[in-house]
Amino acid sequence: MTLSALILAGSRGGVDPVAAYAGVPHKALIVLEGETLLARVAAALRGAGVQRVLASADAGAVADEADKLGLERLAPAAGPSASAAAGFAAGGAPMLVTTADHALLRPEWIAAFLDRAPRDADVSILLARREAVERDAPATKRTWLRFADGDWSGCNLFLLASPRAAAALALWQEVERDRKRPWRIVIRLGPGMLLRYLLRRLTLAEAVARIGARAGIKAAIVESPYGLAAVDVDKPADLDLVRTLVR
Question: Which domain holds residue 56?
Fold first, then answer.
């Protein structure tokens, strides 16, 4: 089955501080080493052998850039989870999902992720340990996921390996809707799992597997040996760091 990929390049509305800092209308249009971020991400996916690349992209300049790059363009939905669901419905499994601000993404990271993803998992998530991130990008400031087996950072790369992964996207949409009511998110974990997390007795792999099971799927984590895989462009300081790293 042909592997496809979806790049989330929609806008959350309002003024994006990173785009404003870079002097462009949209973060995906920031130019790094002569290429837009959208072009860099698309090139990394194609370099890893992905032949069909879709982009959830806003109308206007981002849409024009997606068309120029030969991407299959979809109108973004209301939020990243809904956009991912729409992209998955259009592209089908297996599908990689990433973001347009994954400025440092490299084909070998993607290839390693695909090679290490469990063959029986419906969804695999790439993450990096704090030690690897701080080794490769000591200046970065991250929000860490703290578990019994250490601190982790997401790498904005997901593999939706089977049609059942749609259930994970539905759960993501529910969590996104409840982001202002965190108690409802906590309820999904169950009291035992929550207590283990608070006591730092829950590993990340266990947490992801349990949450996947509640959605009726098998979900797994894949550890990235590349700390830079966790560096995206969420803040102006991130853009400064990325510009320094590519130089």
Answer: 4-246
123, amino acid identity: V
User: Any idea what the CATH number is for the domain that residue 65 is in?
Assistant: 3.90.550.10
Please list, in sequence order, all residues whose beta carbon lies within 8 angstroms of the beta carbon of residue 131, skipping any fewer than 6 positions away: 150, 227
Give the global pTM.
0.93
- The model's pLDDT over 178-204, given as tens digits with 9 standing for 90+, comes to 655 554 555 666 777 778 877 888 899
Report phi then psi at 73, rounded to 5.
Answer: -95, 135
- Evaluate whether 7 touches 71 at the Cβ level (below 8 Å): yes
Span 155-176, pLDDT tens digits:
999 999 999 999 999 988 887 7
Q: Which tokens is 129 given? A: 């340990």
Alpha carbon separation from 124 to 26, 103, 127, 152, 176 (Å, rounded): 29, 21, 10, 15, 19
Amino acid 163 reads P
Residue that has been written with the tokens 């501080």 in this structure = 17
For residue 190, count other CB atoms closer than 10 A to its CB: 13
E-state strands within the chain: 4-9, 31-32, 35-36, 52-57, 72-74, 95-99, 123-129, 145-147, 150-160, 219-223
Q: How many domains does the chain have?
A: 1
Helix (H, G, I), strand (E, B) or coil at 114: helix
